[in-house]
Amino acid sequence: MSEQKKNQNVNPDTEELTEEGLSEQRRIRREKLKNLQEAGRNPYLIEKWDVNAYSQDIKDRFEEMDGKEVSIAGRMMAKRGMGKASFIDIQDSKGRIQCHVKKDVLGEEEYKWFKTSDIGDLFGIVGKVFQTQRGEITVEVSKMVLLSKSLQVLPNKWHGLKDTDIRYRQRYVDLIMNQDVKDTFIKRAAIIKEIKRVLEEDFGYLEVDTPILTTIAGGANARPFETHHNTLDLDMKLRISNELYLKRLVVGGLDRVYEMGKMFRNEGMDRNHNPEFTSMECYMAYEDMEKTMEVTEQVVSKAALKATGSMVIEYQGKKFDLTPPWRRLRMSDAVKEITGVDFDQIQTDEEARTAAIGQGMDKDEVQEMTRGKILAEMFEEYCEDVPGYLDGPVFVVGHPVEISPLAKRDPEDPRITRRFEAYINGWEIANAFSELNDPIDQYERFKEQQAQLDDGSDDEAHPMDEDFVNALEVGLPPTGGLGIGIDRVIMLITNAPSIRDIILFPTMKPLDSDSKKAKKPAAAAPEKIDFSNVEIEPLFEDMVDFDTFSKSDFRAVKIKECEAVPKSKKLLKFVLDDGTDEDRVILSGIHDYYEPEELVGKTAIAIVNLPPRKMMGIDSCGMLISAVHHEKGEERLHLLMVDDHIPAGAKLY
C-alpha cells in the first residue's frame, strides 16, 4: 500500500464510506498505531496533559488572550491542507477552535507524524492565540502530542442517520458529533441542580438516600424487577418508589426529606417511558396537599427559568406558561366535560357500570369495578388523550380512594382522597398527597390490595407492608408528599421528542445478532409436540360465498413496536408496518401468552379493513390473527406468525 493511501484521511462531513471501506480504514488506523508504538510513540502510555484554556473561553476573551500562549486538549474533527502547513479543528468540552500547524514551527519529524493523524484522534496542543486574515480566532501550534489514537471512523452525516437506535446505543459518538445533544445533557444537569437548590434553599428539605434493593416494592402500583440475594437466599426487588422509606424518616423526626434517584418498573416502553427512570420524592411534615402544589409549581417553573431563561417553554410547537399559580380541575368534572357522565349524581357501583358500558367500555372489564375505579378508568380512557385538554399546567384533584392507597380521605367526601396529579402537555409529571397517617385505615387498604395480588385480579396492586404500618402506629405527623417525574420535566424543558433523548444510556433491546447468540442453543433438538390432549372448536357448518370472504383484507404485517397497555392486564399495543407509509396500531388481548419484547421484529397476519374501535381509549385499527385451542381444560393461544421473508403488506389469498 502506498504511503499516500495510508495517510489518506476520511472527512466525515463529505465522504460516504461503504462497510468495506470502513473496515479498510479501521485496518489502516491499527497499522498506524503499530507504527507509532514501534517508534516509541505509544499514545496510550500518556497519563495527563495540563490544560489551562478552552475553545469557547479563548473566543469569548480574545482581546485578553491575543498573543498569549495556551495549552488546550481535544479531539481533531477536521483537517485541511497537507503541504507544509495545515489547519485543524480541535473540539473540547466547550466547543471547537481552529489550530494552525506549520512544518517549520513544529519541526520536520513531528510534522511527518502529524500528517499520519486521523479525524477523531485526541491531541494536547500548546500555542499562541492569534486571528487570521479572515477573522478566525486560531491557535498557532508550537507543540502537539497525540494523547489517544481513534481506531474507529466517525460517522459521516450523523444528523442524517435513519437508524436513531445507533445514536442511543453509541451515545459517546452522538455527543461527539452533535453539539445540541451535548447541550441537552448540560441542561439536564442544570435542571437537576436547580431542583435540588429550590428544595433545599427555598423549602428547607434534607437530601437522603434510601434502599434500591428491597423485599417489598411499595409506594406505587407497578410491576417490579425481581432478583435474588445469594448470601441471604432472599428474593428481592428493585424499588418502584422510595415513598415508604421516606415517610419512615418523617416518623423518625426528619421533618423535611427528599431523594432524587433511579426507580425501576418492569413495564412497557415508549417515548415517555423507560424501565429505569429518575424520580424525585419529597415529604414535608405538618403540611398538606396545598403546600405540595406550591412546591411543584416552584420546582418546575424555576427549573425552566434556569435552563431556558423563561418560565414560558415551547415543546414540539406548543407553548406552556409555567408561571404559578396553576389551574385546578376535579377528576369528576373532567369526565363530565368530556363524556357527559356526571359522577356527582352517581351513587352506586351498578350505576357507574351502566354509565361506563354506555360510553363503550368493555362489559367484562367493568363488571367487578367499583364506582371510584370506574371514575378513574373513564378519566384515563376518555380524558387523558383528548388533544389539548390537559395541556396545562393543571392540577387534577379528587382521585378515588380505590386508586390512592397511600392518600388521606377527603373529609367532605370519603370516597375521594386529598391527592393531585400535575399535567403538562397531557403528561402526568407529578403525583402528590396529603399522606395517609391512619395505621388502621392503611392496614385495611393494604389488605384489600394484597388480596387483589393474591387472586391475580391486579398484578400491580400494592403489597402488604406490615413494617410500614408499624411505623404509622409509632406516629406519622400530618405530611404533604410529592413525587415528580424528572425525566418528563426535562423532556418538556429541553424540547426532547423522546425520553431516550434525555437519558444518556436508555434501555435498548439487544441487537439481533447478540440476541440470537444469547438465546439460540448450540444444537437444539427438534421439539416434540403432543397433540393428544388438544381440543378444537367444531368447524362452522354455515357456508359463506367467496365474495363475502374476499371482503376481509388479510395482510402480512411487521411488528415494529409492542408494549403493554397501562392499566390493562390483557392488552398489548402493536405498532405495525402494513406496507403503507403510515404505522398501523392494533390492540390485542394476548398479554397472558406473550411478553411484548418477544414479538418485536416478527411477521404476523392481520385483517386491516375493519373499522377502528376504541380499546382503553386507543383506536385499534384492525385485528391480529391468533390460533386458539383447548388443552386439558385450559385455553391455549398462538399468535399467527409467518416467515420473515414475507414482506409487509403482502396479501393473503
TrEMBL record:
Q: What class of enzyme is it?
A: ligase
Please give the family membership noted in the entry.
Belongs to the class-II aminoacyl-tRNA synthetase family.
Name of the gene = lysS
Species of provenance: Zhenpiania hominis
Q: Where is this region: Disordered?
A: 1-24
One GO biological process this protein is involved in is: lysyl-tRNA aminoacylation
- Cofactor(s) needed by this chain: Mg(2+)
What is this protein's record name?
Answer: Lysine--tRNA ligase
InterPro entries, per this entry? Answer: Aa-tRNA-synt_II, aa-tRNA-synth_II, aa-tRNA-synth_II/BPL/LPL, Lys-tRNA-ligase_II, Lys-tRNA-ligase_II_N, Lys-tRNA-synth_II_C, Met-tRNA-synth_bsu_C, NA-bd_OB-fold
